[in-house]
Amino acid sequence: MAIKDRLKQLVTSYSQPPRYSDEKLEEHQCPNCGHVFKGNYCPVCSQGAGDGHITWKWVGKSILDVWGMDTRSLPNTLLQLLWRPGHLIGDYIGGRRQVCYKPVNMLFIVALVYVILMQIIGHDVGIVDVELDGGDLDGYAKMIFASYEWLVAHPGWAMMILTMIMILPTLIVFRFAPRHSHLTFPENIFIQIFMSSLMLIIAFTISVSNGITIFLIPLYYYICYRQLFGYNFWGTTWRLAVCFFVWVILAFYVIIAVLVLVVPDNESKNPFLAIFFGVAESTLATTLLIAIPLSLAYLISRKTAIR
């Protein structure tokens, strides 16, 4: 194949989901229910056309299936997530569920591998030793480090919490996108589940590079949202800037609330509770700070939407 044809094939695969071919058009009799059919799976009981005697190949396939390395391969899904994140997410929420590994399962496996790799390279995950004196400052500092310990020890949950904050601004700001418009709240949840796995991979690169690759976080959000929603450079950039602005404000409230709930040391909660209720006094100002940019972005997107 010529180089030009290979490049054309590469560009095509970048924006389009994997194609499937009918490899088993011959007639089969299902060994499970006895139904005669053509295709890859029995339409009555869903057993595979090739399922029969147990062979060494079947044993290997069963082992690989546990880790998602056969049908809807986990490694292949992760490669797609790095190569074409917005297109992959668009395929999934558009109904093409067979193009990738189950996103929730993927997140927990990636989180597990993240913890193991961090231990191997010498990072102490979830181990913080703090010895401070000073009354309320002591409790305040312990709360911070205990919270940090919980977040780092549970990277999957931590990343889900942080990325889920993007649901609300994404739902409003990208409501009238040229591609995948009017997405529902559950669909936005799955967008951020995919992003959680992607952000964990990036978090690992940040750890091993001493923070040099931190630019990958906004870069990948830009790439993903541009591919997923179909806006041009400036359309994606300013809308994503609004989302990040709202995210910073919401993250403050959410993290404070989560830390108060999950950190077991009740004696050190008072400083954070004071901060929480102190911030609550400025709820009106914060609401306006969030509502104004979201409303403007919503109205502009609606006005300029392609009808």
Description:
The protein contains 13 helices and two strands; from the N terminus they run αββαααααααααααα. The protein is mainly α and 307 residues long. It has one domain. Strands 1-2 form a two-stranded antiparallel ribbon. Helix 5 (103-120) runs parallel beside helix 9 and helix 11 (233-262) runs antiparallel to helix 13. The longest helix is centred in the last third of the chain and has 30 residues, at 233-262.
How would the blueprint of this fold be written?
Layout: H1 3-15, E1 27-29, E2 36-38, H2 56-66, H3 74-83, H4 85-93, H5 103-120, H6 136-153, H7 155-164, H8 167-173, H9 185-208, H10 216-229, H11 233-262, H12 270-280, H13 283-303
Antiparallel strand pairs: 1-2
Helix pairs in contact: 3-4, 4-10, 5-9, 6-7, 7-9, 8-9, 9-10, 10-11, 11-12, 11-13
Total DSSP helices = 13
- Count of the domains: 1
Query: Would you tell me the structural class of the helices and strands?
Result: mainly alpha
Binned, the helix content reads: 55-70%
Uncertain regions: pLDDT < 50 for 5+ in a row?
Answer: 124-138
Number of strands: 2
Task: Give the CA-CA distance, first to last residue.
Answer: 41 Å
| Morphology call | globular
Order of helices and strands: HEEHHHHHHHHHHHH
Note the main sheet.
2 strands, antiparallel
Radius of gyration: 24 Å
Give the rounded overall mean pLDDT: 76
